[in-house]
Amino acid sequence: MGPPLRPNQCRSRLGAPPSLPAVCGRVARNPGLQVGMAAFAATAGRLLGLRAAGTEGRLLRLRGAGLQWALLQPASATGDAAQRRQVAHFTFQPDPEPQEYGQTQKMNLFQAITSALDNSLAKDPTAVIFGEDVAFGGVFRCTVGLRDKYGKDRVFNTPLCEQGIVGFGIGIAVTGATAIAEIQFADYIFPAFDQIVNEAAKYRYRSGDLFNCGSLTIRAPWGCVGHGALYHSQSPEAFFAHCPGIKYKMLKTHEESRRRETKVGT
Q1: Which of 12-16, 28-32, 88-92, 226-230 has the largest mean confidence?
Q2: What is the largest CA-CA distance in the chain?
Q3: What are the φ and ψ backbone dihedral angles of 45, each rounded to 5 degrees?
Q4: Which candidate, 228, 244, 236, places its Cα nearest to that of 193?
Q5: Best exposed site among 22, 69, 118, 234 by fewest CB in 10 Å?
Q6: Transketolase-like pyrimidine-binding domain: from which residue to which, for each copy (predicted)?
């Protein structure tokens, strides 16, 4: 077989670029060696660190004894631009700083949510809040005092049935009223998956825009308990974030909690 070729001999025999590893000499030292196209392409990919041909270009041709190195052609500029438009569309839009501040009150995140719910009930006479244990204030105390302030017809408990809670909210929303449904823990939302994804999110499309659930808000706290294991500490938001017809909001500040809503079916 003889000793391996030196890099310059390897380059002249194969037409290979100087940067190729010297291991190519093992392939080149026998001019009659026939290398299978698939095996050679895989070897070249490993040696050169090439990506898939469909991404960076295409392999032109590979011969046996001659062993011409594959050439890569860059993808079209039009294709690159189209791909960039699809994957790089995010625009950061921070909330503007207020010109002046009014009267302020110190509160935690739960109290900010209570304030937002209070404002909704005060401004919208059709708004109702319902869910498991919301009448006495909820397990996170986000509805404290609202039943006493607005009455049992607007803030009330429901049975332990998440599918029924969301279904009830859909019925209220399609009549034009504002429904604010609470799922006690986000982990409990899975029984209501069909109502949310196949009913609420698709109601406008299914009815030809005669009805919609745009006035339905579903609150589902998650990450609030660090020791709840499989029924109290899950984060199922990704199951809903990619569903058409749902607007998903992850509230991270007190200000967002007071101003924004999580709406379904819009």
Answers
A1: 226-230
A2: 96
A3: -65, -40
A4: 236
A5: 22
A6: 107-266
- What tokens appear for 20 in the block? 């190729």
Q: Which two tokens stand for residue 255?
A: 């200000």
**What is the average per-residue pLDDT within 190-219?**
93
Instruction: Tell which residue, 52, 38, 43, 47, has the closest CA to residue 17.
Output: 47
H-helix or E-strand spanning residue 128: strand 128-131
pLDDT tens by residue, 40-62 = 555 555 545 544 444 444 444 44
pLDDT at 27: 44
- Residue 156 bridge partners (DSSP): 130
The residue type at 69: W
User: Which residue intervals of the chain are DSSP H helices?
Assistant: 7-14, 24-28, 37-48, 53-56, 77-87, 109-123, 146-150, 162-174, 193-194, 203-206, 238-241, 254-259
Active site residues: 162, 232
How far apart, in whole angstroms, are the C-alpha atoms of residue 104 and residue 114? 16
Residue of 146, 165, 254 lying closest to 216 (CA atoms): 165
CATH number for the region 109-264 comes to 3.40.50.970
Q: 134 and 144 in contact (C-beta within 8 Å)?
A: no
* CA angle (133 as vertex; 106, 116 as ends), nearest 5: 35
